[in-house]
Amino acid sequence: MRELTGTTTDQAPAGPAVTDDMLATQPIGYWSGLAHAAVTRHLRDAMAKIDVTQPQYWVLNQVKYSHAAPSRDEVADQLTPLADGQHEIPRVVDQLLHRGWLGIDAEQRLRLTDAGETARVRLRELVTELRAVAHKGISDEEYVAALKVLRKIVANVASPVV
């Protein structure tokens, strides 16, 4: 077995009470999962107070920032990997059409309505406020470093094991 440089191989039990000197032995899956759950809950709880869901926000942004007006299938293809199952995004599109935040043209392309853009901007402001809470005490440099580490871990485990 090859020795991992700069890494201890004995893993301390995962838990939020571990001391800083034990963090190098902590499992990334535990901490990334805990962070994902906490941030997602924080966002979704705040959005629920204004009767909106996180996937609705995703769809509004996807339609807004697509190079050309997307079809329902294109939106679903882009967002389903983030969603809770393959049917969630098509349901969200239906909800937003019903709410009048999306319209559909003769070519079956989705477009934001004025009400949809107003809602998207309001949600963007909310998400910006929530981001400030989550990032309190964390510099942009620290945040970028953390994301680079996570990106590298994803790349490492996405590669075949040698």
Quick structural overview:
The protein has 162 residues and is mostly helical. It contains six helices and two strands, in the order H-H-H-H-E-E-H-H.
3D architecture notes:
The protein is mainly alpha-helical and 162 residues long. The protein is built from six helices and two strands. The chain has helices at residues 28-48, 54-65, 72-79, 88-99, 114-134, 140-158; strands at residues 102-104, 110-112. A two-stranded antiparallel sheet has the order 1-2. Helix 1 (28-48) crosses helix 5 (114-134) and helix 2 crosses helix 5 (114-134). It is elongated, with a radius of gyration of 20 Å. The model has no long low-confidence stretch (mean pLDDT 89).
Biggest pleated-sheet summary:
2 strands, antiparallel
Fraction of residues in helices? 55-70%
Strand content: under 5%
Content-based structural category: mainly alpha
Treating each run of at least 4 consecutive H or I residues as one helix, how many helices? 6
Overall geometry = elongated
Number of E-type strands: 2
Strand adjacency order, main sheet: 1-2
- Poorly predicted spans: none
Tell me the radius of gyration.
Answer: 20 Å
- Give the N-terminus to C-terminus distance in angstroms: 12 Å
**Mean of all residue-level pLDDT scores:** 89
Helix-strand topology string: HHHHEEHH
